[in-house]
Specification:
Layout (H helix, E strand, L loop, with lengths): L2 E9 L8 E6 L7 H11 L3 E6 L8 E6 L4 E2 L3 H13 L9 E9 L2 E10 L2 E8 L5 E2 L3 H9 L13 E3 L1 E5 L3 H5 L5 H11 L4 E5 L9 E7 L4 E4 L3 H13 L8 E9 L7 E10 L2 E9 L1 E10 L1
Parallel strand pairs: 2-3, 4-6, 11-12, 13-15
Antiparallel strand pairs: 1-2, 1-18, 3-4, 4-5, 6-7, 7-8, 8-17, 9-10, 10-11, 12-13, 13-14, 15-16, 16-17
Length: 299
């Protein structure tokens, strides 16, 4: 029998029972893909992350992410949770306070992670691939019924775009709170449009210091609604810069994305966008996490 250390961690929050929960298996070496999927199904969280030795010589470690139904190529909150767990357990050289850079091997390529360990906690910065948005105003009519909203609820000043997911702007925060999604109908549209999920967002926010508020749905991945989605908040930051909703001066632009409030799991994602010659050139998400449960899983 094999015993694995597993942590249940809330990401993009500084307090338990908020943000987005993820399970982290600190050493997934030797597990088959079928075993990983079974563990993810058993944990029944939006994602379970497995920390593995790298298969690429240019990487320091590897992470694979599984929803209860399938593997995904990128997951922000489970990455924040994973590096929080590694720092908490003083693994991968993180024994003392300080800054620790990593090259992380993923199904989306080798991505950069920076962990700042201090005062018994860790702040994790995760660089994401740059989105390549395509404008598609037809997305409004495609998704309006499955979201339980009216077409005039969309923000006509801003375009609907897609890149892996659909990104749909609405006029008011109240529209986000009042959504009544039909997940079966949504599944069919997502398959037809060859998209993974839907990110609905507004520039009206709960906190005055925030830039945007969003909700995210991915029912075909076994995630009807994801509480806080790092891999959607990062692209939203690029969208904000690209459409003049925040400053476009060259250098680093920082903003806060809100998510999860409508379902009682508020989380906050810091988004960093670098701008050169007026255009966004790179994006990263930054967050903290809290360990809620730690135990062992026996196979």
């Amino acid at each position: 029998m094999k015993s694995l250390i597993v942590k249940h961690i809330d990401a993009f929050t500084s307090k338990a029972f908020a943000g987005n929960p993820a399970a982290v298996v600190l050493s997934g070496d030797g597990l088959s893909e079928a075993q990983m999927q079974s563990i993810a199904r058993e944990m029944n969280l939006s994602e379970t992350a497995f920390v593995l030795p790298p298969s690429n010589k240019h990487a320091d470690l590897r992470i694979r992410w599984f929803t209860p139904t399938n593997e995904v190529a990128l997951c922000g909150h489970a990455t924040i949770a994973s590096f929080h767990a590694l720092a908490e357990n003083s693994l991968h050289g993180m024994k003392k306070n300080g800054s620790y850079p990593f090259h992380l091997e993923t199904a989306s390529g080798i991505l950069q992670v920076l962990v700042v360990k201090e005062n018994g906690g860790a702040t994790v910065r995760f660089a994401l691939p740059m989105p390549q948005f395509k404008k598609n105003q037809n997305l409004k009519s495609d998704f309006v019924n499955s979201l339980g909203m009216q077409e005039n609820d969309f923000d006509k000043r801003l375009p609907c775009v897609s890149w892996v997911n659909a990104f749909l702007p609405v006029r008011r925060l109240s529209v986000l709170y009042d959504l009544r999604p039909d997940f079966q109908a949504m599944k069919k549209v997502l398959i037809r449009k060859k998209l993974l999920g839907i990110c609905i967002f507004s520039t009206e926010t709960v906190d005055r210091s925030s830039t945007f508020h969003s909700r995210f749905f991915a029912p075909n991945d076994g995630i009807d609604e994801d509480p806080v989605t790092g891999s959607a908040n990062g692209p939203l930051g690029v969208y904000m810069v690209g459409h003049g909703l925040v400053g476009k001066s060259d250098g680093l632009i920082e903003m806060i994305g809100e998510q999860g409030d409508a379902i009682g799991r508020p989380g906050r994602v810091k988004v960093e966008v670098h701008v050169e010659k007026g255009k966004p050139t790179s994006v990263a998400i930054v967050g903290n996490a809290v360990t809620v449960v730690e135990g062992s899983l026996t196979l």
